[in-house]
């Protein structure tokens, strides 16, 4: 910590501090919500930056004179503002409100620049706003994770799971943030719905690797989700009605004293139980979730916000005994954004998160025969500061302290050995600090060195034999960019990452996965990321980027499913329930983005390889050592085409008197690795199969085409948007997994039969969205 | 230079990844030998509890008649510490190896099996097991004493149990005598009925009251299935109120009877080899066999029968 402070002081002392500034916030004109990543530039000096996540910008001006400030962003009208500097110590403030570009009815020519243009190097970053998320065709309703799963570099493992496998990383290696706080198990039942209601989400940022020093604690990627602030100009609402769920979102301005703010609330609930009343013996299931956010500008320099999320799934299933399952997340975030002076922007966060899951089995007598409770608490304080003393330096620094507590406890009325029923309660604290400088060495070269320090310690545990853990790590990060032309650049990135939490999970993510802080029996996971990329704005309507990456992993942990979430309470440590190992991933992600004559979307292609080697897993029969293998989520290639065609916008034509959009998702993935029988033996009762390595075969390639049509009737009071979607239009029988069985056929011969687990069949959905 | 980067760079990045399908090589080369032997306390290694040695090449060349190794030398040694070591050979008989001398397997004794399969070079397979403490099945633990009802030790005649009475009147129970503590407990409910669409679920599943024709393959599949429900775990045998000795008792288990009909119920206290073989993924790697696959385990306990009726 002292070291980092010293670095900050030295860096600051090297920088000239005398310059005039122009600063302010950029908002949407229609809702007055902050607008992120707007390109802001002083036309005369060519210096520029992008607004941060809160919509804030600051630019330094060295000389007195008259200047023009330009705001540009894709899909928004360019805005210019004239201002004068009469004193080199003058601080000018200007808040800009930007209008959406052009009129929806006419053909749009995008005049914005590359969305990633700006001083900071954001490699491997894909950003999506609400509209983009909702334009992706998804089963039942628009979904954040389903939208993310279409992006290059992100592999789905099954239609029934929205677990994110990012560039060869498993879902537990993703840092998933909702308003700056971790969300630990962001899925509803079956993975069709993710935790986040797209109506409540302002934007998502997926950083697929090589993420900056601000982030830490995970090995693979960051998914940063921000709740919407709500309309600051007027009250409005959105209601959605689909086959099995409904949601409502309300938002509007608030005022306290002379200061203004906004609120946003969104609630969603499924009503499968109504279907269940009509069709007996379906499991009794529903979920609900809600997002809420309140913002208030205490002054022009102070912005306060509080947000919360809650969600719960409940499932009951009678199979002679009754299984009751429920799980859910809760989060809260309080934020104070304070501008110490125009050059020093700060954000202070106090936030918490909780995930709990409960499982019980109740006998007909009413006695509970088995129950398991599990959960993780997270309480986090963090400060993020950004200092821009001169235009060619932006110093970001901050600190975070995070407390985690995990518990897992099982009880049963059976005469089960109590020592083998887990009863674990472990607390840990992780303190970290970071510093990063974005340094424009020249108009052509930018370097972004960063350093993160983290200290992890277990602080409380209920079992004496669990060894304490104390780990400290320095994580250097560096990015380098060379601008080749306007909107064209190459860049390279390197970063070191550590992870102190691990997840007990079966091969596919479930709500009953168990997070655990590492104890002293396990070393933290470690990953090195190398990235090399090229970006080019091909024209005002097309952008292209290609990125090659290589990641190595050490101290990887793979849950040993044979332990069945239990270990000996008297002698066991966390290492008893994990396979340890190493791995690597390399590949290339290619993305072509378009916003051309009403056709908006992207084509993504990924070529990649992922390999892991774990102790005591995928055993070599000769050496009895684990053999390296391609895990299930390894994809040689993956092609996705996500496009929305706005017919009305492109041609001015309407269908049935309404604006008309067509959406298409096309996915083609190489088949996942799988096992196959190689030998047969007799187990004393029947012939049984001996299986190959986990990656002996590749299942058939996966292909799916989804289509949607959406109508929008605009009325004086709002709009009505009925939609019709078809998932898997071609009704392709995609294979999720393959099981083999030895059976006696009619002629008395043994026959090897294989059975494929199904993915989504052809599924039509209808729904309606109403906005007012 | 910049032009060179512009055009070559994306190409180089693309070439850095390969499109070819990567898969692992064959896991096994040549023949794979497997051992299947569960020694039962108080029984001999006979046709009911034999030792099987199998040899398997590829799936494609599989022949059920040639899979059983018939020319191996098989010796069982009693290597229990503190007593003189004894040994007895096993003889091949109709696809299996049995003990012609009918030596009884003793609880808490440690046995070692040594197998030599002739060849060039010969294949040596060995394994050891320690037989668990004695466990005696208790068919009517609550002493209901209802004629023709409850579990029976014979298949004919077979007692009946009403499904609704399973949990309430007939818990599974093993008497471990003076021994209390933790045991590897394994239970298997095996439906003796042949598959038919007349098979009726004890608890309707998603509205289905009877087996569907499409279930036939999965019903007849080897290993665990709707026909063969297993549960196993580390259970404790302890003194029970008003009953002499120590008992391992399992109540609330009726969901293991998926269909109405005749059942064979196997209850074992198992050694580590058989326990690990049974519960671990790819258990044939974890059954304690050196030089081959499969298991060399031991257990005490036995088998009961009952017909589950409405």
Describe what this molecule looks like in 3D:
The complex is a heterodimer of chains A (772) and B (310). Chain A has 772 residues and is mainly beta. Among the domains of chain A are: 2-98, Immunoglobulin-like (Sandwich), CATH 2.60.40.1120; 687-700 and 715-771, no CATH class. Chain A contains 5 helices and 45 strands. Chain A has a 22-stranded antiparallel β-barrel. The two termini of chain A are 51 Å apart. The relative contact order of chain A is 0.10. Mean pLDDT of chain A is 89; it is low at 103-116. Chain B has 310 residues and is mostly beta strands. Chain B has 2 domains: 32-130, Immunoglobulin-like; 136-275 and 299-309, no CATH class. In chain B, strands 1, 2, 8, 9, 10, 11, 14, 15, 16 and 17 form a 10-stranded mixed β-sheet that branches. Chain B has a 5-stranded antiparallel β-sheet with strand order 5-4-3-6-7, with no helix packed on it. Chain B has a two-stranded antiparallel ribbon with strand order 12-13. Chain B is globular and about 90 Å long. The termini of chain B are far apart. The mean pLDDT of chain B is 91. The chains are: A mainly beta (772), B mainly beta (310). At the A-B interface, strand 27, strand 31, strand 32, strand 33 and strand 34 of A face helix 1, strand 1, strand 2, strand 12 and helix 3 of B.
Structural class of chain B: mainly beta
> What distance separates the N and C termini of chain B?
85 Å
Helix content of chain B: 10-25%
Q: CATH superfamily membership of one domain in chain A, which one?
A: Carboxypeptidase-like, regulatory domain
- Stretches with pLDDT under 50, minimum 5 residues of chain B: none
CATH class of one domain in chain A: Mainly Beta
Order of helices and strands of chain B: HEEEEEEEEEHEEEEHEEEHE
- Secondary structure tally, helices of chain A: 5
State the total count of DSSP E strands of chain B.
17
What do the pLDDT scores of chain B average to?
91
Task: Describe the main β-sheet of chain A briefly.
Answer: 22 strands, antiparallel, barrel
Give the CATH topology of one domain in chain A: Immunoglobulin-like
Distance between the termini of chain A: 51 Å
So, CATH architecture of one domain in chain A? Sandwich
* Structural class assignment of chain A: mainly beta
Summarize the main sheet of chain B: 10 strands, mixed
Oligomeric grouping of the chains:
heterodimer
What does the overall shape of chain B look like?
globular
């Amino acid at each position: 910590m002292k070291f980092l402070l010293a670095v900050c002081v030295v860096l600051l002392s090297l920088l000239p501090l005398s310059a005039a500034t122009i600063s302010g916030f950029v908002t949407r004109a229609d809702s007055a919500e902050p607008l992120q990543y707007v390109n802001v530039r002083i036309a005369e000096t060519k210096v520029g930056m992008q607004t941060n996540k809160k919509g804030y910008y600051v630019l330094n001006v060295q000389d007195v004179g008259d200047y023009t400030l330009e705001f540009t962003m894709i899909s928004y009208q360019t805005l210019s503002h004239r201002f004068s500097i009469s004193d080199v110590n003058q601080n000018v403030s200007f808040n800009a409100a930007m209008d959406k570009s052009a009129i929806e009815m006419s053909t749009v020519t995008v005049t914005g620049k590359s969305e990633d243009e700006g001083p900071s190097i954001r490699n491997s970053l894909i950003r999506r706003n609400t509209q983009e998320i909702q334009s992706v065709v998804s089963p039942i309703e628009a979904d954040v994770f389903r939208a993310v799963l279409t992006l290059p570099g992100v592999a789905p493992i099954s239609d029934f799971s929205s677990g994110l496998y990012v560039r060869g990383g498993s879902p537990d290696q993703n840092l998933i943030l909702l308003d700056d706080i971790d969300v630990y198990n962001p899925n509803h039942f079956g993975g069709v719905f993710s935790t986040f209601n797209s109506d409540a989400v302002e934007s998502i940022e997926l950083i697929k690797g090589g993420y900056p020093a601000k982030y830490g604690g995970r090995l693979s990627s960051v998914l940063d989700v921000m709740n919407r602030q709500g309309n600051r100009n007027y009250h409005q609402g959105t209601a959605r009605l689909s086959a099995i769920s409904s949601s409502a979102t309300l938002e509007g301005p608030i005022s306290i004293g002379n200061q203004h703010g906004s609120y946003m609330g969104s609630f969603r609930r499924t009503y499968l139980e109504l279907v269940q009343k009509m069709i007996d013996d379906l499991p009794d299931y529903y979920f609900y979730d809600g997002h809420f956010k309140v913002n208030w500008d205490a002054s022009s320099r102070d912005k306060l916000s509080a947000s919360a999320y809650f969600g719960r799934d409940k499932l009951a299933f009678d199979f002679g005994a009754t299984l009751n399952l429920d799980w859910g997340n809760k989060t809260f975030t309080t934020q104070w954004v304070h501008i110490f002076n125009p050059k020093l922007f700060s954000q202070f966060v106090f936030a918490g998160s909780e995930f709990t899951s409960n499982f019980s089995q109740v006998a007909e007598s009413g006695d509970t025969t088995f129950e398991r409770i599990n959960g993780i608490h997270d309480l986090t304080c963090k400060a993020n500061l950004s200092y821009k003393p001169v235009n060619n330096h932006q110093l970001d620094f901050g600190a975070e302290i995070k407390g985690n507590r995990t518990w897992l406890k099982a009880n049963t009325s059976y005469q089960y050995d109590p020592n083998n029923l887990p009863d674990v309660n472990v607390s840990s604290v992780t303190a970290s600090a970071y510093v990063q400088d974005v340094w424009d060495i020249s108009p052509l070269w930018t370097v972004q060195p960063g350093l993160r320090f983290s200290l992890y310690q277990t602080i409380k545990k209920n079992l004496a034999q669990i060894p304490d853990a104390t780990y400290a790590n320095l994580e250097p990060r560096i990015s380098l960019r060379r601008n080749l032309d306007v909107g064209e650049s190459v860049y390279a990135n390197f970063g070191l990452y550590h992870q102190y939490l691990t997840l007990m999970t079966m091969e596919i993510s479930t709500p009953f996965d168990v997070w655990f802080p590492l104890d002293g029996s396990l070393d933290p996971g470690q990953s090195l990321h190398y990235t090399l990329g090229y970006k080019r704005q091909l024209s005002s309507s097309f952008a292209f980027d290609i990125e090659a990456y290589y990641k190595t992993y050490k101290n990887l942990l793979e849950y040993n499913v044979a332990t069945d979430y239990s270990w000996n309470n008297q002698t066991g440590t966390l290492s008893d329930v994990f396979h340890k190992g190493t791995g690597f991933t390399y590949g290339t992600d290619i993305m072509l983005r378009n916003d051309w004559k009403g056709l908006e979307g992207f084509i993504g292609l990924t070529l990649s390889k992922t390999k892991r080697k774990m102790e005591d897993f995928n055993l070599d029969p000769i050496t009895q050592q684990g053999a390296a293998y391609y895990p299930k989520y390894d994809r040689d290639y993956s092609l996705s085409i996500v496009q929305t065609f706005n017919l009305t916008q492109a041609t001015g034509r309407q269908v049935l008197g309404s604006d008309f959009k067509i959406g298409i998702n096309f996915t083609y993935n190489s088949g996942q690795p799988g096992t196959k029988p190689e030998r047969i033996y007799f187990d004393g009762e029947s012939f049984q199969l001996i299986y190959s390595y986990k990656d002996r075969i590749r299942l058939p390639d996966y292909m799916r085409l989804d289509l949607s049509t959406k109508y929008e009737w605009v009325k004086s009071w709002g709009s009505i948007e009925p939609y019709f979607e078809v998932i898997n239009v071609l009704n392709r029988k995609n294979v999720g997994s393959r099981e083999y069985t030895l059976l006696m056929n009619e002629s008395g011969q043994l026959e090897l039969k294989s059975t494929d687990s199904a993915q989504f069949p052809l599924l039509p959905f209808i729904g309606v969205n109403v906005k007012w | 230079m910049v032009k060179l980067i512009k055009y070559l760079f994306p190409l180089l990045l693309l070439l850095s990844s390969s499109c070819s399908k990567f898969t692992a090589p064959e896991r096994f080369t040549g023949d794979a030998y497997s051992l299947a032997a569960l020694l039962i306390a108080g029984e001999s290694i006979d046709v009911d509890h034999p030792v099987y040695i199998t040899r398997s090449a590829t799936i494609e060349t599989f022949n059920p008649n040639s899979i059983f190794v018939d020319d191996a030398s098989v010796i069982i040694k009693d290597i229990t510490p503190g007593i003189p070591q004894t040994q007895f050979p096993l003889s091949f008989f109709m696809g299996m190896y049995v003990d012609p001398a009918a030596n009884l397997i003793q609880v808490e004794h440690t046995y070692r099996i040594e197998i030599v399969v002739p060849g060039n070079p010969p294949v040596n397979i060995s394994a050891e097991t320690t037989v668990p403490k004695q466990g005696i099945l208790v068919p009517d633990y609550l002493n209901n004493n209802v004629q023709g009802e409850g579990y029976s030790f014979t298949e004919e005649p077979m007692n009946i149990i009403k499904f609704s009475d399973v949990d309430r009147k007939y818990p599974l129970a093993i008497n471990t005598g003076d021994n209390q503590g933790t045991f590897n407990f394994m239970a298997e409910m095996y439906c003796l009925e042949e598959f038919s669409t007349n098979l009726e679920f004890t608890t309707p599943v998603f509205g289905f009251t009877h087996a569907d024709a499409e279930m036939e393959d999965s019903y007849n599949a080897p290993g665990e299935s709707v026909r063969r429900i297993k549960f196993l775990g580390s259970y404790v045998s302890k003194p029970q109120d008003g009953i002499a000795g120590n008992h391992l008792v399992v109540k609330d288990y009726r969901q293991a009877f998926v269909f109405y009909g005749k059942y064979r119920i196997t209850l074992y206290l198992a050694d580590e080899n058989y326990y690990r073989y049974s519960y671990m993924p790819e258990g044939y790697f974890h059954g304690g066999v050196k030089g081959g696959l499969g298991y060399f385990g031991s257990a005490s306990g036995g088998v009961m029968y009952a017909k589950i009726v409405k």
